[in-house]
Amino acid sequence: MTAELVRGQNHPLPGTRLEIRVSAGEPIVAGATLGDDRGRVPGAEWVAHPGSPTLPGLEVSRQAAADHRLAVDLGALPDTVHRVSVLLALPVAAGGPASFRALAAPFVAVTGLDGAEVASYTITDLDAESAVVALELYRRQGAWKVRAVGQGYAGGLAEMLTDQGLPQARELAAAIDDAVAQGLARSVAAPSPRPADDARARITTEDHGPAHGRPAPPVQRPGGEPPVQPPVQQSGGDPVPPADTTTGGPVDYTHPGRRTAAPPPPPPAAPPAEPGLPAQPVAGDATGWSLEERLYNQVWGMFEDLARTTAAYRSAVDFADSRMEQELDKVLDDPRSRIGGAGDAARESARTKHADLVGQARAALDRDLSQLAAEADVVEPALPPAFAAWSNPVWHAYRTPMEIPMALRLGDLHLPERPDLRIPMLVRLPLERGLWIDSGKALTNHRTDSTALRRLAMDTAVAHAARLLAVYPAGEFQVHVIDPAGSATAALAPLVSAGVLAGPPAAGAAGVSDVLAGLTQRVDLVQMAIRGGAADALPPDLDTAEQLLIVNDFPHGFDDRAVTRLRYLADEGPSVGVHLMMVADREDAAEYGPLLDPLWRALLRLTPVPDDHLADPWVGHTWTYDPPVLPAGSQILRQVLEQVATARRTGGR
Could you tell me which residues are beta bridge partners of residue 58? Predict the structure, then answer.
């Protein structure tokens, strides 16, 4: 999948042998410089240009052209090279454009040798500049990355090479111009555009944003899955695939990259209120076979949009910080400019550029966050019960469903840039992993004492269990509880009083053993039936409903045999409809040592209070998880459980 970069954003490179493709619509000059660990170019022998197109690990075009292909072998570069900067410049020729203002926005793509794009960048907002640093490939902690730079220079090649610390920059710029002038007769003109040409050929100076001028590439997943899945823990889990990252324009609420299957199209989006304004968000505008599937895809599309716009902002700030640091270092390197008016002016200029870059990045972020907030305001009220928060009015019209929903809401996710913008955390049903509600001491930074925290953890577990009971058809989901010491009696009261548990909460060592033995036997029987192809041979009294086991106060009341059975259920149960929900402090089980580490890793860790422990591994965001919260004084949980109990008694009616 291609990462569409914005200025300042970086992206990891999957290999060392690459090709850089440039498309500008008019003949331009392409070259590259090699920089040391400080980004400086020591001499002219470190510059690849039309007059000297080949360096170790690098080859550029020999003439001006509308399209270029630069070959890069990062593994063949000298060890002293830490940065490769890709340069674009306008040729000095009579009748040619004097600045990039007269050209379409140049498009640069990094590809593998097979032609598959790794990252791309449309260089927007160029005006009087006649030379630009398009991209830089840089080494960071032994790995190579690409960063979108887009730094333009009105003074052309000479100013650009001088900024990179190259001695005799003007002499080399003149030599490059001479080499280009000799080859201008052989310059490759831009081909005539065809209707089937790539969309980037249609980008004009009036339409610079990549979100408008170049549609996002399709994102396909096997089996028609949506392109984004819930974030995972830092300790493991299902990864979030990379998402295209672009803030070149407002968020496109038609979500072209969210799904590419061919189900019926979603309802048309409402037109903008006024010309030039973004389209108003519409609930269910993602693609899917049903409204539920469209809403599911839209929610995770919102997650993708929030991840990518925040990644772009953070990358831009990182670039601005790095740029200011380089400029300040340049001032300090020259003893003549360390003190006095010239040094103060240079430092103030560096800080002003930094503030300008950060301000532009923040403005783009605020624009996209405002649009996502508007979308969230429209989507949240339209969600079905399985996706909806407990405060959603849809619960007041709750009726027992006839079919199992495709997903379940486990809470909300947000990032520090906009804490009030919450994205529902949806996981597919049936659950593929058990849940661990952490009541541990690691959460005491929330100023909650251990007793209150354990009660909050059990209340959270009850809310999750109630939602699972409510979204499954009557009788198709059973809940068992192990509470060895009876410490969760108050928290379990809503489930017990409604009569929706499979049996009374198990207490004591004997109760723990009986419940675990029954569920272990069920797992064994179903597995044998599946492997033997004899599902119709199951005992007639076997409950075929999905099973959930809530374990409180682990490891109290568990002997070695019970612990072994619990691990077996965590590993083998989900595949045959037996799920585990642990309410525990991991430190309480420290006496078992590393024996139980696989158990904790097999479970999705949730918390009873907001906590920063979920992460997506692609962009590296740490997301704050917010547990489901019942409105203060609300009776909705009791009312829903009563309807579940009534539906069970009446056979779903």
Answer: 55, 72
597: CB partners within 8 A, 6+ apart: none
Relative to beta strand 546-554, strand 578-584 is parallel
SS3 463: helix
Q: Compute how many other C-beta atoms are within 10 angstroms of the C-beta atom of residue 552.
A: 27
What is the spatial distance between Cα 154 and Cα 128, in angstroms, rounded to a whole number? 6
Question: Looking at the DSSP assignment, which residues form a beta bridge with residue 423?
Answer: 413
Supply φ then ψ for residue 504, to 5 degrees.
-60, 150
In this structure, the number of other CB atoms found within 10 A of the CB of residue 223 comes to 5
The two tokens of residue 505 are: 């909460």
Sign of the Cα torsion 644, 412, 281, 220 reads negative
Structure confidence at residue 618 (pLDDT): 63
CA distance 295 to 461: 25
* pLDDT for residue 441: 67
Residue 73 bridge partners (DSSP)? 17
Structure tokens at 618: 């692609």
* Residue linked to tokens 């006839």: 402
HSE (side-chain half, CA atoms, 13 Å) at 313: 22
What DSSP string runs through 506-538? B-HHHHHHHHHHHHHHHHHHHHHHHHTT-GGGS
Judged on CB neighbours under 10 Å (0-12, 13-18, 19+), 347 is middle
Quick count: other Cβ atoms within 10 Å of Cβ 170? 14
Residue 583 near residue 457, CB atoms below 8 Å: yes
Instruction: Give the count of alpha carbons within 13 A of 360, CB side only.
Output: 16
Whether cis (ω within 30° of 0) applies to the bond prior to 227 is: no
C-alpha span between 88 and 150 (Å, rounded): 10
Nearest alpha carbon to residue 319 among 36, 618, 10, 84:
10
Pairing of strands 117-122, 3-5: parallel
| CA torsion through residues 440, 446, 450, 451, sign | negative
Query: What amino acid occupies position 462?
Result: V
Mean pLDDT in each 10-residue stretch from start to end of the chain (653 residues)?
80 90 90 89 91 91 89 91 93 79 89 86 88 91 87 91 89 89 55 37 30 32 36 36 36 40 51 58 84 91 89 88 85 68 81 91 92 94 95 93 93 94 94 92 64 91 96 94 94 95 94 95 90 79 91 91 93 93 91 86 92 78 92 92 92 66
What number of residues does the chain have?
Answer: 653
Q: Are 461 and 482 a contacting pair, CB within 8 Å?
A: no
Q: Which of 550, 541, 413 is nearest to 468 (CA)?
A: 550
Pairwise CA distance, residues 422 & 431, whole Å:
22
Which of 174-180's residues contact partners 24+ apart within 8 Å by CB, and which partners?
Answer: 175/51, 176/29, 176/31, 176/49, 176/50, 176/51, 176/89, 177/91, 177/92, 178/51, 179/49, 179/50, 179/51, 180/29, 180/50, 180/63, 180/64, 180/91, 180/92
Q: Position of tokens 């119709």?
A: 536
Cα 302 versus chain centre, distance: 10
Backbone phi and psi for residue 291, each to the nearest 5 degrees, phi listed first:
-60, -40
Alpha helices (runs of H) in 29-141, residue ranges in sequence order: none
**Would you state the pLDDT for residue 487?**
92
DSSP 256: T
pLDDT of residue 188: 41
- Helix ranges (H only) for 31-124 are none
Among left, alpha and beta (phi > 0; psi -120 to 50; other), residue 285 is: alpha
